[in-house]
Structures are given as C-alpha cells and as structure tokens.
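Entry 14. Ran structure prediction on the chain below.
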Amino acid sequence: MNLAWGLLLLAWHQSEAALEIFVSNKTAKVDSNVTLPCTFSWGNAPINTTLLQIIWIFKDQFVLTYCNKLTVNENRASMKTDQLKNGIASLMLSKVLTTDDGIYKCVVIYDKVHKEGIVSLHVEGMTYWMPAALCIVILATAILLGGGMWCCRICKNKRFDAI
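Output, structure tokens:
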C-alpha cells in the first residue's frame, strides 16, 4: 500500500474514533416534561460549534436540527444551544403525550464525522380525547357501577386520563 494512502486511512480512523456519543433511555408521565439525554465528546478537545450538526429524529421525522442555528419542527421540542459547546445535545419535550412514546435518534455530526445514539422513551399513563358530554356519561356510569376500576379527571380541555 502506498504510504500516503496508509497515512490518510490512519488519520481517518483516528478522527472516527475521536467522536463519542452517550445516550440513555427515559420514562415520563403524560403531561410532564422530559429531557432525552444525548451527550458527545471529541476526545479532550473543545467543541467548535461551527463544525457541529445535531439532528433529532422520531418516527422518520426531524424533530429538530442544529447547523449554526436551531430549527424546530415540533413545537413542544427544544434544545439548549448554549450547552452544545459542552457536548450536551439533549432533547427537551414539554407536555408529553402518549404518542411521544417510542424510539428517538440523536445524530451528531462533527467535522464530517457521524455518530448516532438511540433513546427509547416510555410514556406512562393513557390519555383519551373525547367530547366532554361522553366523558361525563362514562364518569357517571363508573360511579353508578361502583367505579372501582376507573378514576377519571375531567379537564376544561375535554380530556380524561385513565389510571
């Protein structure tokens, strides 16, 4: 093998190994706020955010992206861009819904090196949406029948949670 190609391959392999990503799974309750952790490091070197891209994906859709500016595609999602220089690219979701349950992918691209981390979010509690009148009928029926299995909370936004 040509010496130049060998050095190029070695340099590529070393840069590939320099980017590390760390994630962990989370559990959240309906209507709570949750932070899906995604941290990364580039060896011991400081992070230059002009070389950084962050992509969060859920169900094959971009939740948010960062490439010198934050683009949010889900209004309940956010990320603290001032923490990127510290290697923190965690996704924050507000007012968690049962439909938020699933697999999230955190993609970090730094200086053309690409790494992915998978975060599983488990959402506890089921939320049902229905007309308020129907919820009242269900609540009244549950009370008349002893109600032991149902605990309903009627909200002004016509939602009840089955517990």
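The mean pLDDT is 81. Will compare against last week's run tomorrow.
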